[in-house]
Amino acid sequence: MTAALLLLVLSAGEPAFEAPVEVDRWHFAGVPVASYASDVGLTVGAALFMYAPDPEHPGEQDSLTLAASYATRGPRQADVAWVHQRLLGLPLRWRLTLHGGDDALMPYWGEGAQLGGLEVPTGSGTPPAPYRYHDRRFLAAATLRGPFLGGFGWHLRARFLDVGVPEPSALLARSAPPGARGGRVALFEAGLLYDTRDHELSPHRGLFVTAAAFAAPQLGGVSDFSFHGYDASARAYLPLLSRATLALRALYDHKLAGVPSRADAARAVPFFERSLYEGLAYGEGLGGGGSVRGIARFRLSGDEKALGSAELRLDLFSTHLLGKLQEYGVDGGIDAGWARQPGWAAVDAAGLAAGLRLTWDHAILVRVEMGRALGGGDETLYVSFGEQF
Fold first, then answer.
1. Angstrom distance (rounded) from CA 39 to CA 371
2. Count of the separate structural domains present in the chain
3. The pTM is what?
4. Could you tell me the CATH number of the domain that includes residue 144?
5. H or E element that contains 137
6. Distances from the Cα of 316 to the Cαs of 13, 121, 322, 330, in angstroms?
7. Where would I find the Bacterial surface antigen (D15) domain in this sequence (predicted)?
8. pLDDT in tens, 244-287
């Protein structure tokens, strides 16, 4: 079944790029997607990419991405991402992200990610029915990034998350963690960075290091909880051969209840924030295609978490179709994650992944990968846009 779906994606997914249409300096390309994963089932959707290279600054491009997908056992979601490289003509990069999702089978793995004491392998799909809840959420995030000197820079980020829980699971209702009925979070972040990558998409050499501090104060009618924290990440790209790159990643994120110097009433990290990490590379995890491949999504959740990855990427050959460059390659690696919630034992897991990759016009990257947990479980097929890291 998995092999057949992989062949379906390879035969219908990669060549299914619509011939890019160019209007002025903007290029348009569409990509249909079909994939299967043990945790979210069959996913179908499509993405529209619009990108405009800057002729005065080689390697830079503005972009707009629209995507929507439907999963039979996972989220129905829509995403918009806009990146503008030179705000007001200055070397200030602006990124705006909007996300809306509805997931009637969202996993809640229990306090301390222990699933109420039930033994479930980390590589399994969704937890049993009593441990899944209905999650509706809207996210809006804006990031401004600028340079200091050389590869050093800074960033500011703000995000708003509104989570609704129309139907809590039996375990969620019994555990009653902060945010069990949903809630809103307004978070503000400031950080420093060091970036020497030769390319942002499929880099072959360089470093990308970030460190940030963030706070989410309780604000009447806007933000229902109060917490703060710190995030640090490092990525290294080492060229091994003319066509091979070793990519390494490490990330640490820690959220703490309350905001210093404030006496907010709701000093707590809501349970739905335990599966999110902050920083310039803000994302969901740990577990799933964006963090620990082969591990069920959000399986490693906690106020404190760490992530490490090592991946070998190899370029094989290239073609020139429809007036655009296509580069084909393979990748393989290992991801490992660790998380801890105060008062509970830490949880950890690791997974292996390997797959194929296609880069289109130095602007769009599609990855088709198979992941499996080291502790056993189901193989999981991922179809993803952009680098995992």
1. 12
2. 1
3. 0.87
4. 2.40.160.50
5. strand 132-149
6. 19, 36, 20, 7
7. 188-320
8. 999 999 999 999 999 999 989 999 999 999 999 999 888 887 88
